[in-house]
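Milestone 3.1: sequence recovery, worked example.
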């Protein structure tokens, strides 16, 4: 099981990676490709799901947090040291903390405007 430091580290990494994937201009061209692809067939549930995923910090943050956790557990050799259910709870904790950071960022951004 990961410790509090690892949880915080992964939460901060999840927050930043989510911001990169959903908001940062460096990935605007990649997101635009998906938006253009969706606009050619707006009735497609697969295309709509893809657009929802890449434009929703909560959706994208969930999957990014899971990928970060899995990578961390595999690289540090911790994956087989706890039951899969424990890693599922860790995933919720990391994603939840990353979302909390996102909400704080959104709130502070609104205050500054």
């Amino acid at each position: 099981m990961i410790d509090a430091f690892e949880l915080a580290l992964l939460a901060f990494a999840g927050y930043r990676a989510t911001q990169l994937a959903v908001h940062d201009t460096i990935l605007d061209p990649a997101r635009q490709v998906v938006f253009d692809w969706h606009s050619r067939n707006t009735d497609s549930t697969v295309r709509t799901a893809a657009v929802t995923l890449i434009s929703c910090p909560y959706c994208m943050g969930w999957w990014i947090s899971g990928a970060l956790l899995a990578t961390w557990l595999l690289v540090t050799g911790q994956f087989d040291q706890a039951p899969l259910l424990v890693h599922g709870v860790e995933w919720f904790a990391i994603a939840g903390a990353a979302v909390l950071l996102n909400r704080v960022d959104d709130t502070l951004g609104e205050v500054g405007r």
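The radius of gyration is 16 Å. The mean pLDDT is 93.
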